[in-house]
Write a structure and sequence with these properties.
146 residues; 2 domains; alpha/beta; 3-stranded antiparallel beta sheet; globular; single chain; 3-stranded parallel beta sheet; 20% helix; 4 helices
C-alpha cells in the first residue's frame, strides 16, 4: 500500500460521486491531521443544507467507502525552520490546515516560537481541534471571537 505523503497545511482534491460532470464532482479539503506514515487523513467538514458534497459525506460515506483523490498539494505550509511567532487566524472549517500544522509542530517536537490560534465565529469547530489539545495547551494561546 502506497503511503500518502503530505506537508502540514496541504489539501487534497476529491472526486466525489455527486454529479455526472467530472468538474462538478471535484471538491478540495484541507488535511486536518499531522503528516505521518499511518495513511490516516482527517478533515474538518460541516454539513451544509443543500451542500451536495457535505451531504454525501454525512449521509452516504461509511467505513470502507472508497474515495478517489488527487495527491496532496498546496504551498500553505509551515516555514522551515520556524524562527518567528506564528499567528493562525480562521473561521469555521478554516481551522483544518492550522490543526494539521499545530499537530505537526507538537507531535514531531519541532522547535518553534510563540503560537497563537484565533478562532472567529468558530465555536462549533472547537471539537475539530480538541483532540489532544490538552497535550499542547501550555504552548498555545487560543482566542475565540464569537
Amino acid at each position: 500500500e502506497e503511503i500518502v505523503s503530505f506537508k502540514a497545511g496541504q489539501f487534497v482534491t476529491m472526486d466525489l460521486p455527486i454529479h455526472e460532470k467530472r468538474l462538478k464532482r471535484l471538491r478540495s479539503y484541507s488535511i486536518a491531521s499531522a503528516p505521518s506514515n499511518d495513511n490516516i487523513l482527517e478533515f474538518c467538514i460541516v454539513q451544509l443544507e443543500g451542500g451536495m458534497a457535505t451531504n454525501y459525506f454525512f449521509n452516504e460515506v461509511n467505513v470502507g467507502t472508497s474515495i478517489l483523490f488527487k495527491p496532496p498539494s498546496g504551498v500553505f505550509i509551515l516555514p522551515e525552520p520556524i524562527t518567528k511567532d506564528l499567528v493562525f487566524i480562521c473561521t469555521g472549517t478554516g481551522v483544518a490546515p492550522f490543526r494539521s500544522m499545530l499537530f505537526d509542530i507538537f507531535n514531531h517536537k519541532k522547535p518553534h516560537q510563540k503560537l497563537h490560534l484565533i478562532l472567529v465565529r468558530a465555536m462549533k469547530m472547537v471539537f475539530c481541534i480538541a483532540k489532544n489539545l490538552s497535550n499542547f495547551k501550555a504552548n498555545l494561546m487560543i482566542f475565540n471571537i464569537p
